[in-house]
């Protein structure tokens, strides 16, 4: 019986393992949320079709796709499900149904914008600059005004419940990724500027933003080539 308890404890304490290519993509948000929660994790980088095929053949991927995260004895797939599990487990998903629903709405909207950033390096060179202009317009006209208004009206440090949540983590990730391409993207949003600084200084997030962390750099040609090697027929 003691051995069984010890085994369960070891399983609970085992670091999550992330399966994905060595780059941002759809796994980067998972890295952000784990880091914000103060959870150390391991990574197994996919570099070849054979590695992906091995996961698929071993029934490790429910829908034959990554991201996949091994955590608490499970093999989780589907990015949003992974994010919800980690956020709920580590108190980043609100205190009641109303807060969770607000967080979910904010996250879903932000992920729509983040998806444009994720796909940008895979566009043809001639289309990339046009897409940067399009991303900026969508951020400035559709998404950022929503969060600027929320922050202005409730006057709190975080988006929901005056505590750090999944919504804050995903929004900061998206803001910083956009600032890499458009440094003055927040010029017209003073509350978001202040908010971005405050959330960046949450100790666990500040640590993740420091050099040497598992935060991935902007996608380069090597990352794009690796993704094609792993996923393209």
From TrEMBL:
<dbReference type="InterPro" id="IPR004046">
    <property type="entry name" value="GST_C"/>
</dbReference>
<dbReference type="InterPro" id="IPR010987">
    <property type="entry name" value="Glutathione-S-Trfase_C-like"/>
</dbReference>
<feature type="region of interest" description="Disordered">
    <location>
        <begin position="1"/>
        <end position="20"/>
    </location>
</feature>
<dbReference type="GO" id="GO:0006749">
    <property type="term" value="P:glutathione metabolic process"/>
</dbReference>
<dbReference type="GO" id="GO:0006805">
    <property type="term" value="P:xenobiotic metabolic process"/>
</dbReference>
<protein>
    <recommendedName>
        <fullName>glutathione transferase</fullName>
        <ecNumber>2.5.1.18</ecNumber>
    </recommendedName>
</protein>
<keyword id="KW-0808">Transferase</keyword>
<dbReference type="InterPro" id="IPR036249">
    <property type="entry name" value="Thioredoxin-like_sf"/>
</dbReference>
<dbReference type="InterPro" id="IPR036282">
    <property type="entry name" value="Glutathione-S-Trfase_C_sf"/>
</dbReference>
<feature type="domain" description="GST N-terminal">
    <location>
        <begin position="14"/>
        <end position="94"/>
    </location>
</feature>
<dbReference type="GO" id="GO:0004364">
    <property type="term" value="F:glutathione transferase activity"/>
</dbReference>
<dbReference type="InterPro" id="IPR050213">
    <property type="entry name" value="GST_superfamily"/>
</dbReference>
<dbReference type="Pfam" id="PF02798">
    <property type="entry name" value="GST_N"/>
</dbReference>
<dbReference type="InterPro" id="IPR040079">
    <property type="entry name" value="Glutathione_S-Trfase"/>
</dbReference>
<dbReference type="Pfam" id="PF14497">
    <property type="entry name" value="GST_C_3"/>
</dbReference>
<dbReference type="InterPro" id="IPR004045">
    <property type="entry name" value="Glutathione_S-Trfase_N"/>
</dbReference>
<feature type="domain" description="GST C-terminal">
    <location>
        <begin position="96"/>
        <end position="219"/>
    </location>
</feature>
<comment type="similarity">
    <text>Belongs to the GST superfamily. Alpha family.</text>
</comment>
<dbReference type="InterPro" id="IPR003080">
    <property type="entry name" value="GST_alpha"/>
</dbReference>
